[in-house]
Amino acid sequence: MSQGVIENPAEHRFELALDGDDIAAAYYRIDENGNVALIHTEVPYAYGGRGIGTRLAIGTFDLIRASGRKAVLKCSFMAAFYARHPEYRDIVAG
C-alpha cells in the first residue's frame, strides 16, 4: 500500500499530495548500482506533527519494494524511519 505516494521520475522524487498544490517529497538519485539513493525529505512546515513524513516514508519504501529495487539511505529522516521499521531490511542496501 503506497499511502497515496507516487513516484515522479522526472523530478527524481516520491511525492505525497497534500492540500492545494502542496506536496511532501522524498528526493532521490539512482546510484551506480541502480539503487534508489534517498537523499532528502521535505514536509512543509505547516504540516508538521501530523504523521505526513511517516506516510511518505512508508509509501516510498513500499513503492521501492514493489519495483524490485533497493534503497540506499543518505537522508537522516529516512534512516531514522528505517531504524524504527526493520521490516524493510529486504530493500535496504548497505
Automatic annotation (TrEMBL):
<dbReference type="GO" id="GO:0016746">
    <property type="term" value="F:acyltransferase activity"/>
</dbReference>
<protein>
    <submittedName>
        <fullName>GNAT family N-acetyltransferase</fullName>
        <ecNumber>2.3.1.-</ecNumber>
    </submittedName>
</protein>
<dbReference type="InterPro" id="IPR045057">
    <property type="entry name" value="Gcn5-rel_NAT"/>
</dbReference>
<dbReference type="InterPro" id="IPR016181">
    <property type="entry name" value="Acyl_CoA_acyltransferase"/>
</dbReference>
<dbReference type="Pfam" id="PF14542">
    <property type="entry name" value="Acetyltransf_CG"/>
</dbReference>
<dbReference type="InterPro" id="IPR031165">
    <property type="entry name" value="GNAT_YJDJ"/>
</dbReference>
<keyword id="KW-0808">Transferase</keyword>
<keyword id="KW-0012">Acyltransferase</keyword>
<feature type="domain" description="N-acetyltransferase">
    <location>
        <begin position="6"/>
        <end position="93"/>
    </location>
</feature>
